[in-house]
Structures are given as structure tokens and as C-alpha cells.
Amino acid sequence: MRPKRKNYDEIIIKRRSKKNIHEQHGGAWKVAFADFTLAMMALFMVLWIIQPQKIAPTTSADALVNPLLTGGAGVFDGTSTTPIELEGTKSSVQKKREIDPKKISEIEKKIADNKKISLEELAMLMTTLAQQLNAETNLLIDIVPQGLRILIKDDANHFMFERGSTTLNAAFLPILARLARTINQVENNIIISGHTDSTQYSKNSLYNNWNLSGDRALMARNILVREGLSDTKVLQVTAQADTALMDTNNPEDGANRRIEILVLTQQAETLYRQIFQSEAFPRFE
Question: What is the pTM of this model?
């Protein structure tokens, strides 16, 4: 006899194996993440190089923790392979003082003879230049661990650029011209950075302080090259906007509007090139 049919439908459940979603991508995301991490590390290192800060005297313990700051054992040690080496890493703020003309003549003779000069000697040349041009309030010199920082800024009477533009004030042209010829006498390369105050453009504007600081730095670079600086000496032109204010208590003050030129030591340039050369980024198969 046929079995009686049950009064309900039989439910059949089929179970299918699910593939792990990560199996579809493999390890590609790890490679991308590693490249991103390396790129960010390089970016922070470059920002550290182009934004040197004045440093206070450090103890021997500080030197062991961060030899980069004191010129101790580290990447800034060793003998330069270039004929002109900027030696010394001790911070030295420009002071108004009389410099012996004989000393300046000796420094210029060293350069002419393709001999090494120290950071202090190059700073003397720049200080003398500022005095000769009556630009001591506009041209400041500072020795930092990465080299010699030359700061060109507004003062109460003169703006380097017309407000909100890249038009250079004619009073600053002789400064850039003399800087171009002086820097060109040494073989060390430079980085140029532009800075603005914190005055903002309107929210609807497509142009902002990043554009302005970058355009001004590029304008300074073009004028320096036009006035005799070798174009191969400029390793980088960068925009800083208002991220590195000189007067943090007065963010809209004119002292924050400036162009900075960093004359790199050989060791600092080597570090810079190591960051940007392709070998610094490992390739994954």
C-alpha cells in the first residue's frame, strides 16, 4: 500500500560553503598599506628638514637620545665629499655687530680657492650683506642643525609682496639679487619655503594661503635664478601656508609673512636624497 501523504510540506535546507571575502584580495591591501606608511614617514621627515627650529643647549643625555640636534654621532657626522662644506650645527641668531672687513676678505678668498667654510663664516657673509643693503630688519640669519637658514620677511615699513599677491616689492629685489650671487659661490644646495600669516581668504575662494605661500616661494626661486643662482641648486620649493608661524601670539602679524631659504649641509642633503630616491621605497612582488 502507498503510505499516507503527510499534511505538511517537507522543508529541505541546503547549506553552501562561503568563501572568505579576504581570499578574493589576498595580501594586496598589505602592500598598499605599507607603501602608504612609508610615504607618510617620508613626508614627516621632509617637513622636519624644511622647518628647522632654534634649539637650546642640550645635555649629553639629550645628545644620546637625539644626536641629530647636537651634531653628535648620527647622520650629520662624517666628512663631506664636496669641496665646500658648511661645518657646525650650533644655533646662532644674527646679532647687530661690526664684522672685521679683513675677516670677510679671508672668507671670500676661501671660497675663491674652493676651500671649506664654516656655517659661522657663511653667516658672516650674509650678515654683512644685510648691513650693506640696510636690510637688517628684513634679512635674518640663523644657524640650525640642517644648515644655514636665511629668512626674508616683512617689516613695519616694507612688505616683501603686495598683500594677497605674488608681486615683489622693488625694495627686495637687490636683496634677492645679492643672495643669489652669494649662495652661488658655495656648492651647497637649498630648499625654499613660503609662509603666510593666518589671514584667511573667503570660504568660497578657490585660492588660499597654501596657493599663496607656494606661488610666492616659486616667485622667489625664479627671481634668484634670474639673478644668477644656478637652477640646479634648488632641491625643493614648498608651501607652508600659516603652519609655521614666527609669532604665534599674533598670527596675523606681518612677521609671519616670509620666504625662508635653507642652505643644506652635505649630510642634510644626503638625508633628503635618501628620502626621495626610489630605492628608499621597497618594492613588493
Answer: 0.67
